[in-house]
Structure formats: C-alpha cells, structure tokens
Amino acid sequence: MTKTRNYKQMKFVIKLITALSISLLFIGCNSSNKPAKGFEDEIFVVADSIEYSKFKDVLDSTFEKIIYTPQPEKIFTLKRINPSQIEKYKRRKNIIIAAPLNSGSQTSQFISAVVDSVVEKKLAKDQNFIVYKENLWARNQLVAVLSASSIQNLRSKILQNSDDLLYAFQKFSDKRLFNSLYKAKYEQKGIEGKFLRDYGWIIYMQVDYHLALNKPEDNFVWLRRAPGSNMERWIFIHWIENATPEYLNEDSIKVIRNRITKKYYLTSDNLGYVVVAEDYFTINEVNFNGRYALFTQGLWDLNIKGMGGPFVNYVFYDEDTRRLYMLDGSIFAPKYYKRNLIQQMDVTLQSFQTENEITEERKRELLNAIED
C-alpha cells in the first residue's frame, strides 16, 4: 500500500520510543483484553465540532491521501466523533484525540484529565511531541493524542509531523494485519522450506497461494492466488547475483521489472505481456527490515492494453550475499476497491527474510517440513 516512506521514519521511531517510555500517560485507563474492531482504513477523531473545523484540512491532507488503483482511493478515512461518544467507539482500531490545551472544550478537558502534568507541558511546548498509546481500550489498538498550546500551534504540529503520523498508523495497521493473516496451520511450510534450502530466503506463503513458476536459471519464483478469477494476486521474487547497490535507482527498477514481466507475465496466447504503466508511478526510500530499500507503487498494464491494476515493489541490496532482491506484488481485481488488497500484498512482501535473519529453530522447522 502507498506509504510516506523515507528516512523521516528513523526520526519518527526515536520520537515514538520516547513517547511510549513516559509513564502514566493515561491516568486510570486500562487496556482491554477484547480485540479492537472496525476497518483498517478508518480513523476516528475525537474532537469538538468547532475546533475540528479549524484543523480538519490538515488532518485530511495527512491521512486522506489519494492512491490510484487505478481509481482514486483514500489511504485512511477520517470520521469525527464527539467526546461524549468515546464510550461507544473506544474499541475502534485507530483513534486520534485532538484539541488545543486549556481551550475549555470537552476534548481539551478530556486530554487534561487523562494525561499527567509532565506530558501536558510537553504537548504544549514541544512541536514534535505526540502521545502514542497502544492497547489503551482494546487489544491491537493505536490511540494518538494531538495537542498544543493553541489551534494555530496544533495545525502547525500536524503539518510538521504529517509523515510521522501517517507512518505510525500505517505501520501499526500493517502489524495488526499480519497478525490476522499469519496462521501457522494455513502456512505452506514445506514450500517455504524448499525456498530456504535452495535459495536462502523465505516468504510467508498462505495456503491459498500456489507455486506457479520456479525458474532457478533466472532466479525467479512466481506465486499466484486465485488465477482466472476476478480477484487475482501475483507475487514474484527475483534476485541478481554478484550485484552492486548501483542498481538502486528508478530506471533500473523499471528495466528489471519490465524484463521479468515480459518473459513471464504473458497472456494465454503469448501476444500480450505486462509492463509498468506510465501513470501514477511513485518511488520512495524506505527501511525494509533494517535495510535501505526503494519502495515503488505503480500501475501495471498490458502492452496491448485491455487489462491492468496496481502493484507494489521493494528492491534492496543484501550485503551478506551480494544479491539485489526485487519483491513484487500485483493485483487484478477490476470489480473491487483495492486499497485493502494492496495493503495485504504489501504486508506479505514484508514477511520476506533471508537465511541470516531466520532463527535456527525456525530453520529446522521449515527444513523438516519439506516433502521431496
């Protein structure tokens, strides 16, 4: 899924650790054992209506960014609720509580009641300080408190920390989604074990994916889900041996992807093949499991037209093996909104690990599952 992914993320991680380490962030609030509920792409904003109207535009620009699949879809949808409705909505997955301090509004009074004086002073004085609280009222829930000394300073804080805010909710949503997708009993450990044995890497393979192509001569593996249906998903893993980090650029990504898809992503009559579409191609620097990587989102198309859809792609260089890896996920679902499908694909790609990242116990488990 599209993300504001760059090295501001590293700055965000430091801020998040600081925020979460402060004790007594919420006085008298206890997390629930009940799981958070609702849609991944909804964020409920607790705010008074008049105050909300004065910073709604900057929240919208932060969270309701548009992605093209190719139809326009929002990354998140914001829904305002009154402070009096907190009890009704407090188990939702994503919540923001926003108000200036000491404004006299219900939300402002609520913030003052649930954070201690040290945190309140930090919210007022530090333009980069945001309170993030996990599992406050429900399991796997993220709550953020946005506050400042005035409406204008609150607007400035949201704008100044826009990338960090979006990243925080996206990463927590990814974590939540992976926990829901990963089920050991539905994992194809035997195939994962073969990837580990033969190629030195694994990727989580759900039971409803199948191994469509395995081409060791081209360092190419293709996984497919629901082929021939109106909701297909394709994943490929490709790697280049004895590579260099010089491949980490936009032109190389397009060339490598088009070369692979021209050879393997063909129509049934072999007359058409998949190419990177010219529109809505974006690329960002990211941290992929501790490595510098390039994250690309774009649209794929046929050279003869007639089909198309979104794709997400990670490319990184692994110093231990001197390999350049390309992990790619595509979707063909013309009758459906695809925002959540893209996120599922993204989360699956993020499950990729090289042999050096896997514990010995996990290696034994997967290798023992191989059925030759």
Describe this structure in words.
The longest helix has 20 residues, at 162-181. Residues 13-25 have low confidence and may be disordered. The protein starts with 7 loop residues before the first helix and ends with a helix. The chain has helices at residues 8-21, 49-63, 86-89, 106-114, 117-125, 151-160, 162-181, 189-199, 250-264, 339-349, 360-368; strands at residues 42-46, 66-68, 72-74, 77-81, 94-98, 131-134, 142-146, 201-202, 209-215, 220-225, 232-240, 274-276, 282-288, 291-302, 308-318, 323-332, 353-354. The strands form 4 sheets. Strands 9, 10, 11, 12, 13, 14, 15 and 16 form an 8-stranded antiparallel β-sheet that branches. The protein is built from 11 helices and 17 strands.
Task: Write a concise keyword list for the protein shown above.
27% strand; 372 residues; alpha+beta; 17 strands; elongated; 2 domains; eight-stranded antiparallel sheet; 11 helices; 34% helix
Strand count, sense and barrel status of the largest sheet are: 8 strands, antiparallel
Number of discrete helical segments:
11
Structural class determined from secondary elements: alpha+beta
Radius of gyration based on Cα positions:
22 Å
Globular, elongated, flat, extended or rod-shaped: what is the shape?
elongated
Query: Unreliable runs, pLDDT <50, ≥5 residues?
Result: 13-25
Q: Which fold name fills CATH's third level, the topology of the largest domain?
A: Protein Transport Mog1p, Chain A
Total tally of structural domains? 2
Number of strands: 17
Q: What is the residue-mean pLDDT, rounded to a whole number?
A: 91
Fourth CATH level, the homologous superfamily of the largest domain: Mog1/PsbP, alpha/beta/alpha sandwich
How big a fraction of the residues is strand? 25-35%
What gap, in angstroms, lies between the N and C termini? 36 Å
CATH architecture of the largest domain, please? 3-Layer(aba) Sandwich
